[in-house]
Design brief:
heterodimer, A: 153 residues, alpha+beta, Ubiquitin Conjugating Enzyme, four-stranded antiparallel beta sheet, 4 strands, B: mainly beta, seven-stranded antiparallel beta sheet, four-stranded mixed beta sheet, 15 strands, 7% helix, 25% strand, elongated
């Protein structure tokens, strides 16, 4: 990829992400493609994902920052707004994107989404249904998945 | 949010502002949706204008030469009248209204997440959504207006007159480049040409006090000239009636005309030549006995033109000396490289550099900070060497 033509904004964001990482979030660019980031988000405390380490991939399209980054969970997660392919249901990644948002703010938003699942606007119908009909059980499943798939191993 | 700044009733009909420097040729910019001097001003422009536009003949090339072949001259900083001025110049740069303003609450570009749509990382299938072509948006440069006197609205207080405990006195900090006077009105109505008339002259007549020029002066209304606020209902004191242009407390700060310092008799001076700053406020009593002054509006009256002063959000961080490439508060939120110099109207978010503003307009019609529709872009240069 044309890393030599990397916009200065991306370089700057990358530097700031590395020098002042947001708590519970790490993002580092791939060596062969500076637009591709390996991301890790720690499951927020007080959430079913607490204790988990979630891997994501983030890609900055050519149009970035006029277009949103593309982000996907690589770690399996039981969440009403994240589907089995890891795709995330978050408005700022779609129609509510603003070029004032950054990689950092996107990842913070995803972290917040883990703390506040929204089964009323689901991406995974089944999980959302589970969440709405028996939240305690759904939360248990989410904790179980966190133990199984996001234990940081 | 109802930002209505127009007041056609008050708009002066006598003033034309000085002919601009050679009018930049706007027709070269047709291909770009945010040309700096667009042909006919969009209708919404009057929404913000409190002053007269130059006659059309000054704004547009003559009809017999609609497509001149010369290169347009560089956009001149003063050539576009605009009426958008941040209001607080007290600290460092006392001359121009495009100077900094302390961010009041400060905006933050963090936008709270809402769920609702799936994003996809499959670049092959996920084409970027191509927005509809953005509607035409005016992109202008700020005009600088020199303000000779400024009342720092954050310092305005009413306090009990210690030697006359039933009465209240006004105090504040102000800057003045010339000698002048402060006039304190209670329940003053604004009339044409920025004249103020007390609505209840039987209760309180305006108090006028002269001052000498100087920056950062403290104004204390002399003891004994205060007002017994007990005369008024608390409800009336805390209520503004902008539709009737009556405010409980009005401070008119005026500088004497340098050309005619001997003549301090206001009535002989045509109002169109006066230079005033008006501060309109309400008096609130929350808990306790002290009145709290809340400024509703500040008006600048310069050479027969009435400006309403509004804050620009995000301009404060620019006022500090120099542009440090590592200061996130000063850089354009889009490229994160250039200093921001362009504000969005009507939301007043100063957040972009001119180049990114232009580019953004090709993609979107929303403010990057608050997502309100962009009606107008305005370039604001801050550097003091550019006076």
């Amino acid at each position: 990829m044309a890393n030599s033509n990397l916009p200065r904004r991306i370089i700057k964001e990358t530097q700031r992400l590395l020098s002042e990482p947001a708590p519970g979030i790490s993002a580092s660019p791939s060596e062969d493609n500076m637009r591709y980031f390996n991301v890790m988000i720690l499951g927020p405390t007080q959430s079913p994902y607490e204790g988990g380490v979630f891997k994501l991939e983030l890609f900055l399209p050519e149009e970035y920052p006029m277009a949103a980054p593309k982000v996907r969970f690589l770690t399996k997660i039981y969440h009403p707004n994240i589907d089995k392919l890891g795709r995330i249901c978050l408005d700022i990644l779609k129609d509510k994107w603003s070029p004032a948002l950054q990689i950092r703010t996107v990842l913070l938003s995803i972290q917040a989404l883990l703390s506040a699942p929204n089964p009323d606007d689901p991406l995974s119908e089944n999980i959302a249904k589970h969440w709405k009909t028996n939240e305690a059980e759904a939360v248990e499943t989410a904790k179980e998945w966190t133990r199984l798939y996001a234990s940081g191993a | 949010m109802g930002l209505s700044w127009s007041n056609t009733r008050r708009r002066t009909t006598t003033f034309y502002h000085p002919p601009p420097p050679p009018p930049p040729c706007c027709y070269h910019h047709h291909a770009e949706p945010i040309s700096l001097l667009p042909p006919p001003p969009p209708p919404h422009q009057s929404h913000y204008a409190t002053m007269h536009q130059p006659p059309p003949s000054q704004s547009y090339p003559p009809p017999n030469n609609p497509y001149p072949t010369h290169i347009p001259p560089p956009v001149h900083h003063y050539c576009n009248s605009h009426h958008y001025h941040s209001s607080n110049y007290a600290n460092h740069q006392p001359f121009y209204y495009t100077c900094h303003h302390q961010p009041t609450s400060g905006w933050s570009p963090v936008i709270s997440p809402h769920v609702g749509f799936a994003s996809t990382i499959n670049a092959a299938t996920a084409q970027p959504i191509l927005p509809e072509p953005a509607p035409f948006v005016d992109h202008q440069n700020a005009k600088r207006v020199r303000n000779d006197v400024n009342v720092n609205k954050d310092t305005l207080k009413v306090e009990i007159d210690v030697s006359n405990p039933d009465h209240h006195l006004v105090s504040f900090v102000f800057d003045a480049l010339f000698d002048g006077s402060i006039t304190i009105f209670y329940f003053a109505k604004e009339e044409q040409d920025c004249r103020f008339v007390p609505a209840f002259p039987e209760a309180h007549l305006p108090v006028k006090i002269s001052f000498q020029k100087g920056l950062g002066q403290k104004f204390h209304q002399p003891s004994g000239t205060g007002i017994d606020l007990g005369f008024f209902e608390l409800d009336d004191l805390s209520k503004s009636s902008p539709e009737e242009d009556v405010f409980p407390l009005v401070i008119a700060a005026e500088t004497y005309l340098p050309v005619d310092l001997t003549n301090e008799n206001d009535d002989s001076v045509p109002n169109t030549l006066r230079h005033m700053q008006i501060t309109q406020a309400v008096l609130e009593k929350k808990n306790g006995d002290n009145f709290h002054v809340r400024v509703i509006r500040q008006i600048l009256w310069v050479a027969g033109v009435r400006y309403e002063l509004r804050e620009i959000y995000g301009i404060g961080s620019l006022a500090a000396e120099g542009f440090d490439n590592s200061d996130p508060g000063k850089e354009c939120v889009i490229c994160m490289i250039e200093p921001k110099d362009t504000a969005v109207l009507p939301c007043r978010h100063m957040c972009m550099c001119g180049k990114c503003a232009k580019e953004l307009r090709l993609q979107s019609s929303k403010c990057p900070i608050c997502r309100q529709p962009i009606e107008q872009l305005i370039g604001i240069k801050i550097n003091s060497s550019d006076q």
